[in-house]
Write a structure and sequence with these properties.
Elements: E1 11-15, E2 21-34, E3 39-45, E4 49-54, E5 57-61, H1 65-80, E6 85-90, H2 95-100, E7 108-112, H3 116-125, H4 127-130, E8 139-142, H5 146-152, E9 157-163, H6 179-187, E10 189-201, H7 208-218, E11 223-231, E12 236-244, H8 254-262, H9 271-277, H10 282-289
Parallel strand pairs: 6-7, 6-9, 7-8, 9-10
Antiparallel strand pairs: 1-2, 2-3, 3-4, 4-5, 10-12, 11-12
Length: 304
């Protein structure tokens, strides 16, 4: 006898641009609440498992979050070389923190998130994913606007990671991607520092924000690079940009990458995958030549 189709009456839907998107059926709603800053939903989605959704956008899913966090964190930390201090802006799920803490050289890791409730929920419900990273003695957490923190601190960091929600017009993060903010970020980096920025999607005809972020960093940093990966949970290829004070990821010798990755546990990155992630597709190289938009405070760029 043919099995009956399971009941699918609840769905999560995400717009990827003005005319298309994707959806997952929801198996379970664990938590749904509105904070002073955003809507938080913690749900179990078909195929990708437990997922943290902020303002309608999946931030992490247990199936493949490591494919996002490993390039975002390890590429800049390896590029810096024996980092001692890391600042994470956003990252309230604790997963970028988890990756940074794998380095024995790290002495201090500061996380700044505007929404205390995201961190508290992550401590309670995502502890098996972030591996209890918030409880490491090297970690200090601040609950405030990331831009104000960087503008007001005098501390310098080897690596700064911008792991915030997408720059949504109705969201809290769109001024964390501008030229003016990146100038402040550079001032807070050491002489070998790197900033890593989650930079939205990459695909032919759909990389406008990534291109603008890359061009914006070029106005501030002497060296700029990027990386990309595919995420089943996003149903998209995702990109990261890097602003570098000294060397960029392409300039790190293979042997050095191999040595570092042999000393930490990864599920995605190998020396070969590291090189593949930072390789630019031909369409992206061509698009860069013909693109000149800069993200500024006066003219921020929003995504869907």
């Amino acid at each position: 006898m043919r099995k009956s189709e399971p009941m699918r009456c609840k769905f999560y839907f995400d717009w990827t641009d003005k005319s298309s998107g994707f959806f997952y059926s929801i198996k379970e709603v664990i938590l749904s609440k509105k904070t002073d800053f955003q809507q938080i939903d913690l749900v179990v989605l078909e195929e990708v498992g437990l997922a943290l959704i902020l303002d309608g956008k999946v931030q992490i899913a247990e199936l493949d979050e490591f494919s996002y966090h490993e390039p975002l964190v390890h590429i800049p930390l390896i590029t810096c070389g024996s980092p001692e201090t890391v600042l994470i802006v956003g990252g309230g799920d604790g997963c970028a923190l988890r990756e940074a803490l794998k380095y024995k050289s790290i002495k201090r890791c500061v996380l700044v998130d505007i929404d205390r409730e995201v961190v508290e929920i992550s401590k309670e419900y995502l502890n098996h994913i972030n591996k209890g990273s918030f409880f490491d003695p090297r970690v200090e957490v601040f609950f405030e606007d990331g831009r104000k923190f960087i503008e007001n601190t005098h501390e310098k960091f080897d690596v700064i990671i911008i792991d915030t929600v997408d720059p949504l017009e109705y969201g809290p993060s769109y001024l964390l991607f501008t030229k003016e903010f990146m100038i402040k970020v550079k001032e807070r980096l050491t002489e070998r520092g790197v900033v890593a920025v989650q930079s939205n999607t990459i695909f032919p005809g759909g990389s406008k924000f990534l291109l603008a972020m890359y061009k914006t960093l070029e106005k501030v940093f002497p060296k700029v690079s990027f990386a990309w990966t595919y995420l089943k949970s996003f149903m998209l290829s995702w990109a990261f940009t890097f602003g570098c004070v000294a060397r960029k990821p392409e300039e790190v010798p293979y042997e050095e990458v191999e040595k570092v990755l042999s000393q930490i546990e990864t599920r995605f990155l190998t020396p070969e995958v590291y090189r593949a992630c930072i390789s630019k597709p031909k369409f992206f190289i061509e698009d860069l030549k013909n693109f000149d938009q800069i993200i500024t405070d006066e003219k921020p760029l929003f995504v869907y």
